[in-house]
Amino acid sequence: MEFEQELKNKVSEAESVIKSYMPDVIDMQHTVLEAMEYTISAGGKRIRPVLMKACYDMLGGNDKLIEPFMAAIEMIHTYSLIHDDLPALDNDDYRRGRKTAHVVYGEAMAILAGDGLLNYAYETASKAFLMIDEADIDDVAGVKEEITKRKRVEKAMSILARNPGVYGMIGGQVVDVELTGQTLSKEQLEYIYNNKTGALIEAAMTIGAVLAGATDELVDKISKTAYNIGMAFQIQDDILDETATFEELGKPIHSDQDSGKVTYVTIHGMDEARDKVKSLSESAIDTINELKGDGEFLKELVKFLIHRKN
Ligand code: GRG
Predict the structure, then answer these.
(1) Probe ligand 1: pick from 80, 83, 263, max atoms within 8 Å of CB?
(2) pLDDT tens digits, residue range 180-228?
(3) What's the CATH number where 43 sits?
(4) Residue 16's domain spans which residues?
(5) Does 197 contact ligand 1 (Cβ within 6 A)?
(6) Atom 6 of ligand 1: nearest residue by CA position
(7) 47 CB within 6 A, ligand 1
């Protein structure tokens, strides 16, 4: 199958999974549920659940245990976007081609919708425990060194708890907020990108690997690949902020420049930024080539991310 068709299928599979785990918009608290639904249903590339499933498939995962985690990672990502767009942070009025949650529902409700999505992500992921059939606990693919399904889910939960937090995404965001408008060292920029963007991509890919029963050594390789992909993804985001149109991005362009943000592009220039995206992506592909399993889709996805226009 052509890669673009395969990607479309995988994105629509992720969409259905996410939809199936979203709460109904009912009861007295329906406004917050509507604001959560409004932002998650606006679309987006669904890169994180697609990357998670691609790693899971590549390493031989073959059941529905992955699905609550696919939904959960997109809920966490969407919460981070709602909060990132708030007046106190980036103060953006558009996201995913729609007015942002705080513009439509007011600031208080947008804060609560972000909180709601974050919390509901863990409620969703924990449903994986209920999907474990006790009968196959000690018979996971017949491979002795592989951890049991319950252990896999426990490990996946702990990645989902840590990476979006203060030692990951929030940590990166904190340094980004504190240093906005200042000159950044290469180390500071790398810290921000690895955490603000890389940590969630790493969570997606390593959760896919862990749930498929990968050994620690293999998870480590996936983690390194994920950081290369995360860094390339963020630099490409910086490039698009300067080169794409509002229609392509579904959000304002030149937002980094307008908010006085120093980015990879402002430090190194556009040509070097493009070269860096290319070399990071090539490193990621080299590591995927070393892994066992069919990494074709994952490699094509990395190449697609280099050339993405949104
Ligand atoms: C607790 C106040 C508070 C904040 C939470 C805001 C925040 C922490 C983190 C922000 C993280 C962030 C926005 C990182 C940028 C990463 C990035 C490139 C996001 C865009 O991702 P895409 O392109 O978006 O995958 P779509 O819309 O396609 O899903």
Answers:
(1) 80
(2) 989 999 999 999 999 999 999 999 999 999 999 999 999 999 999 999 9
(3) 1.10.600.10
(4) 3-307
(5) yes
(6) 84
(7) yes
